[in-house]
Amino acid sequence: MENEVINEYTKLVWTAIPDKLGTKKQELCQRFLRKCPTPLAIKRLSRIEKNEINEWAPEMLNFFAAIELGKIVTKSHEEIIGHAYSSIELGRKMVDHFQSEEQESVCIACTDIHNEIIDWKILFVGGGCECILYPDKIFQYALRCSAQGIIMIHNHPTGDIHPSKQDESFTRRLERGCEIIGLHLVDFMIVGRDTYHSWREASLVNELKK
C-alpha cells in the first residue's frame, strides 16, 4: 500500500511540473523528490524551505498553489446548516471534516428549538495534542446566534476518541453553564480519524443499563 502511494505521488509531482520546461522538467522533478520523497515531507516543509524551492524556477510557485488548492478541496464538505441530524449522522460528517487535521480544534454547532443546526463555527485551534477552551467564548457565540442549544465537537488527531479527564471536566462545566444561561447542551462529541464518541449516546446507553 505504501509503495502504491509513493508511486502515485511521484506521478502527480511529474504531472504538476509543466512539459514546456523540456529537459528541465525532469531535473526539477528529481530535485523535488530528493527534497520531499513522501507527501508527508511536503507538509513538514518550513516557509524558508518553500521559498528556497520557489527560487528553483517560477513554475514552482504554481506547483505550491496547486497543493494549497488541493488542501482547500479536501477541507470542503457538505453544508450542515439547516438540517436536523442524529448524533450518528453528525458524527460521520464531523469525522469527514476533521479527517486530515493534525491540530486539535473545537467546533460549536448552534441549534434551534427543533434541534436543527442554524450555525456552526470552529472557535478554538490548538496544537497536536491540546486545545485551550474558554466557555465564555462559546456562550457568547451561542447567544449571538440566538441558539436554543449547542453541540460541541472536539477532534483528537491521535485517533483516540476516549474522553480524557479534561474532556469530562469541561463537559460538566459546559453543562452547568448552559443551565445557568438557559441553553441546552445537546451533545459533546470527540472525533477521531474514522469514528467518534458521543456524550449523548453514551448517556443513553448508561441509562438503559440501569
UniProtKB/TrEMBL annotation:
This protein's record includes keyword Lipoprotein: no
BP terms from Gene Ontology: proteolysis
One Pfam family cited in the UniProt record for this chain: RadC
Keyword S-adenosyl-L-methionine: no
Domain MPN: 84-205
Top-level taxon: Bacteria
Any one GO molecular function term: metal ion binding
Keyword field: Hydrolase, Metal-binding, Metalloprotease, Protease, Zinc
Family of the protein in this entry: Belongs to the UPF0758 family.
Name of the protein: DNA repair protein RadC
Gene expressing this chain: radC
